[in-house]
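> example.struct
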């Protein structure tokens, strides 16, 4: 990867972590999971704590265990994030993104809020915050999705899929043969 004047931080949604688990199983792609661990340890792979809660609801699988082993990547909600999440949830343009009747809050607005607030912070080393969500934009007649909110003029944060994160990081996984 080329040298950059900024560092990229990925704010990951539950959908992306679930995609990783289903598509790139730990038993088959251990190198990928090591790369993810490296991002988490470097504070370049983060998520709001609501993502961890959603993973825990899904059960004790490889991704849930991995997430619990990297609990420092999960950020607590602060007042600024809460305000942005509230704006998103209450905006009629994004009606349906959030199910108010769910017992555990959906992570989507919190993922976006974390990325937006952190992107706006002034730092010595500039950071580019990118939302990672494995879902496309809204289809006609369907509920809005994370990319729809990210591209809104008020938020303007890049949104990519898991494979886009792998490409952005320059990860390549090479076939190795085991000799018998």
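> example.seq
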């Amino acid at each position: 990867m080329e040298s950059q004047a900024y560092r990229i931080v990925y704010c990951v949604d539950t959908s992306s972590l679930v995609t990783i688990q289903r598509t790139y199983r730990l038993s088959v792609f251990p190198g990928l999971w090591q790369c993810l661990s490296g991002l988490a340890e470097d504070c370049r792979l983060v998520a709001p704590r609501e993502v961890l809660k959603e993973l825990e609801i899904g059960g004790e699988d490889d991704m849930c265990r991995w997430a619990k082993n990297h609990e420092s990547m999960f950020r607590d909600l602060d007042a600024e994030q809460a305000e942005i999440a509230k704006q998103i949830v209450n905006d009629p343009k994004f009606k349906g993104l959030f199910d108010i009747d769910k017992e555990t809050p959906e992570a989507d607005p919190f993922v976006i809020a974390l990325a937006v607030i952190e992107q706006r912070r002034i730092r010595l080393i500039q950071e580019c915050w990118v939302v990672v969500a494995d879902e496309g934009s809204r289809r006609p007649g369907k509920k809005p999705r994370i990319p729809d909110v990210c591209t809104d003029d008020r938020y303007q944060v890049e949104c990519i899929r898991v494979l886009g994160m792998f490409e952005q990081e320059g990860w390549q996984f090479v076939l190795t043969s085991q000799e018998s």
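> remarks
The two ends are 35 Å apart (CA to CA).
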